[in-house]
Design brief:
single chain; alpha/beta; eight-stranded mixed sheet; four-stranded antiparallel sheet; globular; disordered N terminus
Amino acid sequence: MGSHPHDLPMPVPATAAGREGLEALLRTPRRSVVALDFDGTLADIVPDPDQARAHPDAVPALAALAPEVAAVAVVTGRPAGVAVRYGGFAGVPGLEHLVVLGHYGAERWDAVTGIVHAPAEHPGVAAVRAELPGFLESIGAWRGTWIEEKGQALAVHTRRAADPEAAFAALREPLADLAARHGLMVEPGRAVLELRPPGMDKGVALTEYLAEVGAEAVLYAGDDLGDLAAYAAVEKRRADGLPGLLVASGSEVPELASRADLVLPGPGQVAAFLGALAATLRA
């Protein structure tokens, strides 16, 4: 059974900058953007990424919150269309203007049109797609690892290996070399190494979207290393005098949690926080 987010008190950020960010959002919601990662933030991490779905409380909380703020955006490493499908975001009353920035912002889905805008595939992705299975076998790293096809990127997961951390460590450098040979980069995450085109990250995507909307305040929530670029973008805005609140979903990634203003235990609590925010703004 899901909790009822509006019945829960709103947690207070641990930092002065975070409290200032939350106060700005509550004071000027129509000039504020709420941006969130998907996996690990709106959806629980599961062994098979194809089985990931938004937490039952997440979409209702977003639908309650979205009409109260300037915009809500989901910023994810997944293909935009996959995030929309797994999130259940299409056709939801209240989310008529939701934007999903997929592949770290290289793709974009707007609820208002239902269309995904995506670039042509980077030639390096096709080359790595052909080479990767044999490459993993040649370095003896295929046991328990598996490849996820992400369209504009490929991911090698180590979660099912006998020792996920050792497999991750052993693969990191060889995969970085393989990616570099084909003009790609490696994005590390929780038991996953993603090979993708350079030039776009969640920080670039978030910065461009906030400029498009004309946002004066921002809340960003994430859970993994890929979210550090978005954190840096919010920190840069704060240095320029624009308030922002950084939320971490879980504390499994110390590099992220240590920079967060507010650490919540996981997607259920993130949804509860968003619901409490919506209830406060509607009150």
